[in-house]
Amino acid sequence: MSSVSKVACFINGEERLEDNVFEKFNPATGEVAALVVESSQSLVDEAVMAARAALKGPWGKATLEHRVDALRRLAVLMQSRFSEIVAEEILDTGKPIAAVATNEINRAIANLNSFADIALSERIEPFRTEMANGASAINETVRTPVGVIGIVAPWNLPLLLLTFKVAPALACGNTIVVKPSEQTPRTAVLLAKLALEAGIPAGVINVVHGHGANAAGSFLTAHPGIDAISFTGETKTGEAIMRSASVGPRAVSMELGGKNPALIFSDCDFDAAVTGTVRSMFDNAGQVCLTTERLYVQRPIFDRFVEALAEKALALKPGDPMDPSTTMGPSISAEQQAKVLGFYERTARGGATVITGGGRFEMPAPFTNGYWVQPTIWTGLGDDAEICRNEVFGPCAHVAVFDDEDEVIERANNSEYGLAATIWTKDSDKASRVARQLENGTVWINCWRVRDERAAFGGFKKSGVGREGGSWSLNFYSHPKTICRLD
Ligand code: NAD
């Protein structure tokens, strides 16, 4: 046990190792992979104080250009430490290197540059105001930092999702305390260390570790020294955090759960729709908030489509995360694996036809005790079945048949969630018509998970409060101040 590495908090530019630690397991093997500091209330207090002090220091006085340069230096430094970041992310998540190295970390780095560009381009033009006495004034609205931002992050795309928050928060001149998921503590600390190396002053990014309720997560979100809270995670957790945020009150940005539909019309490009839908169901072992968990396929192609999906699901290859040919990783934890297998068991018992999967993968050593679950496809249940309503966050979906456009729109919208939807058809008028009627924050037409940091991102209904991306992020991480002077 003593050889297991420890993951420290990072406060005011220094690593903080404390005696109170919890075990973090490697999802691919089930072995203890790290001992992580479980932050006490007083450690969280220190982190918030460090962030508050840093606001009064050089960072608080830095110009937008200076902050944007710092973000770009951080991006360059991250690029130069790319393999180290990839290795740390894989240790925490067990994800295949093909996904982490070709997609996630590149996109995390790109986010720093994108928000640097957005902050520079989204300046608000001043207004000339004519006055009754014939004189005029200039009204200029400038962005000022909100203060100390508390960021609470999930485990599914640890560094990537963190950068969607850290980059605009820093561009706007705030300081930060991050509480990464207890499942994925490493890359947040690495990001904070690299930021210091890139010249971002000590105390601007602080990281505390630990669990959520009655632990580091709630210590942070209830802390009176936090000025705004940015959260990504489950809807229920979002509700608890909003209750904490009501004291103050503090602004919240909430990216929450989903139960995302795909609408597959019989006039689609069949092969593209199969390939795209398989990605949207099984990428990251289904642990993406945008994962498709409900499919509606038009009757003429239903049987052929289900068969083609099953064939591709069976071709996915779980295995050593460091093997470039591995295409499927494990669930993040034993709890998540049990949650997914619980859905599998209840769905089969509820009368679904199991097209493929339905259990755990039997893996060879050293992966025997990892948290592997099979990609799973069901048919045959009604829209009110548990599997068609509740988010699983695993590699699985129920496929239902539909006949016409109005019917499928109504069924796709019949959900508490409204994060994302996907439409597959070659008829572009129909695609636009359907997209406008779907109650989702993002609708993809003949593609999936193509994101532009300048566009709005977030959820309708129980999938979120507020938006990330472009000016929406800048509006959350800054207070507008209007300065008026006579012309
Ligand atoms: P989670 O809500 O369990 O945990 C997220 C974070 O909140 C963790 O850091 C956790 O420690 C912390 N936390 C838990 N309880 C808390 C409390 N009472 N007070 C303060 N902090 C608390 O979510 P998860 O399991 O890490 O992530 C999966 C969920 O995230 C899924 O529902 C998924 O859809 C959602 N998600 C949404 C988006 C999006 O952009 N909408 C993106 C990724 C994930």
Identify the notable features of this structure and list them briefly.
seven-stranded mixed sheet; Ald_DH/histidinol_DH; six-stranded mixed sheet; 487 residues; 2-hydroxymuconic semialdehyde dehydrogenase; binds nicotinamide-adenine-dinucleotide; alpha/beta
Can you characterise this structure?
The chain is an alpha/beta fold and 487 residues long. 39% of the residues lie in helices and 22% in strands. The chain has 16 helices and 23 strands. The strands form six sheets. The protein has a seven-stranded mixed sheet with strand order 15-16-17-14-13-19-20, sandwiched between helices. The longest helix is centred in the N-terminal third of the chain and has 25 residues. The chain is globular, with a radius of gyration of 23 Å. The model has no long low-confidence stretch (mean pLDDT 97). Bound molecules: nicotinamide-adenine-dinucleotide. The site of nicotinamide-adenine-dinucleotide (NAD) has 32 residues, from α8 and α9. This is 2-hydroxymuconic semialdehyde dehydrogenase. Pfam families: Aldedh (PF00171). Belongs to the aldehyde dehydrogenase family. InterPro entries: Ald_DH/histidinol_DH, Ald_DH_C, Ald_DH_CS_GLU, Ald_DH_N, Aldehyde_DH_dom. Keywords: NAD, Oxidation, Oxidoreductase.
